[in-house]
What we know:
The chain is mainly beta and 542 residues long. The strands form seven sheets. The chain has a six-stranded mixed beta sheet, with no helix packed on it. The chain has five helices and 33 strands. Strand 14 and strand 15 (248-250) form a beta hairpin. Helix content is 9%, strand content 37%. It has three domains: 26-152, Immunoglobulin-like (Sandwich); 153-332, Immunoglobulin-like, CATH 2.60.40; 342-528, Cupredoxins -  blue copper proteins (Immunoglobulin-like, Sandwich), CATH 2.60.40. It is globular, with a radius of gyration of 24 Å. The chain binds 2-acetamido-2-deoxy-beta-D-glucopyranose (5 copies). One 2-acetamido-2-deoxy-beta-D-glucopyranose (NAG) is lined by residues 73, 112-114, 532. One 2-acetamido-2-deoxy-beta-D-glucopyranose binds at residues 279, 286-289, 307.
Amino acid sequence: MRLSAIFQTLILAALVVCCALWANGEDESKYFTWEITYGTISPLGKPQQGILINGQFPGPPMELITNDNVIVNVINKLDEPFLITWNGIQQRKNSWQDGVLGTNCPIPPGTNWTYKWQAKDQIGTYFYFPTIAMQRAAGGFGALNVAQRSVIPVPYPTPYGEFTFIVGDWYNTNHKDLRQRLDAGEVLPLPDGLLINGHPSGLTFKGETGKQYMFRVTNVGISTSINFRIQGHTMLLVEVEGSHNLQVEYESLDIHVGQSVAVLVTLNANPKDYYIVASSRFTEHTILNTTAILQYDKSNTPASLPWPSGPTYQIHWSMKQARTILLNLTANAARPNPQGSYHYKTINITTTIELSNTETTINGTLRYAVNGISYSDPGTPLKLADYFKIPGVFTLNSIGYSPPPAGTPAKLGVPVIGRNLHDFVEIVFQNEDKKKVQSWHLDGYSFYVVAYGHGTWSPADREKYNMNDAIYRHTVQVYPAGWSAILVSMDNKGMWNLRSGIWDREYLGQQLYVRVWDSQESLFLEYDIPQNALLCGKAKRR
Ligand SMILES: *[C@@H]1O[C@H](CO)[C@@H](O)[C@H](O)[C@H]1NC(C)=O
Ligand SMILES: *[C@@H]1O[C@H](CO)[C@@H](O)[C@H](O)[C@H]1NC(C)=O
Ligand SMILES: *[C@@H]1O[C@H](CO)[C@@H](O)[C@H](O)[C@H]1NC(C)=O
Ligand SMILES: *[C@@H]1O[C@H](CO)[C@@H](O)[C@H](O)[C@H]1NC(C)=O
Ligand SMILES: *[C@@H]1O[C@H](CO)[C@@H](O)[C@H](O)[C@H]1NC(C)=O
């Protein structure tokens, strides 16, 4: 071959490679192999059994770009079944990959299973965690950050760097012991502490003087709301669970269980060290704290006491702050069309669903119920029962009344709300507990949080709804003896878990499912069952 021919061949080859990459450039695939093992960890100084991912606690951060295809091979080396959910990832048309017991058979010990999903049209701060029993109390959780594609502008300057804060309460108790205690009817005590990225204190985040950083903060805990703050600095809130909010500066922020935010912090104070503090909210007698250090590159001075102070029990403070978190109607969402094009106030509500949580006793042990029914896992994923048309696993629209009629004992069940695709639904969460904040999460969706209120909700409260720029998120807090109202467009076909983010309550029955249905069987509306789907329970021999 002459030299020019070789060159021509090389150029051709380069073009083929370049253009093949270009064709897939927008929707890349990212592969992960995650080995789930037990390992000894001592986050609060006392050695205990933790759940590790590739040897790490917390698990490795998953860094994605919008529309990435994600392939995660999860190798379960625990002695019990395992599943992970991708909290806030909407799994569009794809509840098959949601990783909860109502959609997936658990991955048996000693085996592996591969999740395949896409971070479709999402930008933001999310996290993942194990969903079975109380495993989440032992680890297996981590950050899941989705950055924008270069073609999509975000309404804030590109930060110089990013820090991730996985904050949560922690028990010095093995997850199996916690489960046993719950099974025996005990209410869990106050957690033993709070952690940031697995540490109660001492972690150092180093930044350059004068630069702006993004702090991504998630409350990954079991039960405790937190207040997050940074000594000597304000935080500009720019993103809430995948939505761009109207940017406001805060001195401290309440983050409830299962919620995530991103804030921008400019290192424009005296170059020294500063305390980053997260403290517990609404824990009456003991305030739990965790700290980390923000260190300027030019710092020679350690952080000075006292810690910056924050609210501890004030519920009204929290509700007032929540009402300042609003959607930026002119900012782009991950889809290259304005977020504000979705005018939810013009859409008629198809149905109102009222849900009341109660603490109750069934068969002599503690349970949590919704409208008088405490969810009990039927052993066959509801999604598989639906797909294979297996009767007797769940009953549609068996969710009971809110509040449950006085004197009717709560019972176990498998409540499922049935809705048609594209219904526009109002859900009112009524918190019957006078002391505890609730945290409600819906898989597969984000929703507009149109109001928080005290007392019992009534239809007249609709006049107070924010029908213009309510924040669009996936997890909402409900204050003690109060209510929260959300509006949700049921545009994602599938079987979706609506659950308490407070995990002892979820485990003891404060959850249900929403089946979003359309009789048309089309791959445009919902993906087919994955080829590798695990089968179990009554679906085992299908
Ligand atoms: C289990 O892992 C192997 C490779 O380690 C892979 O080839 C196989 O597809 C995985 N099985 C499942 C069900 O994901
Ligand atoms: C947490 O910090 C607050 C305020 O600094 C303090 O009152 C409280 O005692 C601390 N809690 C613990 C458990 O040390
Ligand atoms: C809202 O988004 C627009 C468009 O990106 C941006 O210019 C503006 O600063 C944002 N406003 C607030 C208050 O966040
Ligand atoms: C909403 O309902 C009202 C009254 O029932 C009706 O007049 C209107 O056309 C409906 N709007 C839409 C967008 O369907
Ligand atoms: C109580 O427990 C018994 C024995 O385990 C069981 O058969 C029964 O269904 C339970 N009752 C309720 C209301 O769950």
